[in-house]
Amino acid sequence: MTTGRALCQTAEAQLAAAGVASAAGDAQVLFWHVLRQVTGQALPRHALREHLAADVAPAVAQAYAVAIAARAGRQPVSQITGRRAFWKHDFRVTADTLDPRPETELLVEAALGESFDSVLDMGTGTGAILISILSERPGIRGVATDLSPAALEVAQGNAHMIGVAAEFISSDWFSEINERFALIVSNPPYIALDEMSGLAPEVRDWEPRMALTDEGDGLAAYRAICAGAPDHLKPGGRLMVEIGPTQAHDVSDLMRGAGLTDPTVLKDLDGRDRVVWGRNPVTKGA
Description:
This protein is of the alpha/beta class. The chain contains 11 helices and 9 strands. It has helices at residues 4-17, 23-39, 48-53, 58-72, 77-81, 105-112, 128-136, 149-162, 201-204, 220-228, 248-257; strands at 83-86, 89-92, 118-122, 141-146, 167-170, 181-186, 233-242, 261-267, 273-279. Helix 1 (4-17) crosses helix 2 and helix 1 runs parallel beside helix 4 (58-72). S-adenosyl-L-methionine binds at residues 123-127, 146, 173, 187.
């Protein structure tokens, strides 16, 4: 028999050797996940110290070895555990969805700073953006689109789990959307093809490629979204998109070119350009 602490220390060394920067933290997170999975108990976090000091059952040790091997192969922790915390909820995550990231919470925060009666989330993935918004605004109409049937299934499951009512539609951007919204949000694929090789293995090799890159300059999604936004926004409605840190100028120009007014750039906690929003003129379509 061996203790949980000894098991975690061995796992930490294994992960560090595989190039995992967060080896110590990941070793403990996965140990905690396996404990809960094998025992079937919702163990409180404060009990971790007790389990680290205790001998580990063979079933836990075996399941932990599998989880650590997956992480050493650079599979993201969220895909191994099947969960990722975002905004105020835990979301189910699979290899068919982009892993919700903390910086995307700025898009949710910006959206919730506005008044709106309907919202469209394009390229929804896990549904984290739309579901987080709707959870704060009960009664608001919410629609989400994605090209991936598997992603839409995950998003629908997350909405049900969190208790949010929304409509999920398979659509290539606006192709299946025939109404106007007060707010449109999106975190589209914005990584240029020549940037893909520089991504961490957890992203490049494990997350859905179509959610990461347009196989071009990283702006194709913004061209489609900005071009279609005026005909799908109510007068005075807003388009809000997450961007890569070097894309603020280009995306702002695309919004202006489509007729949206006063593009505004918001920075994330690291001081990087992260969100651009523009408004549909009140007179447009009135």
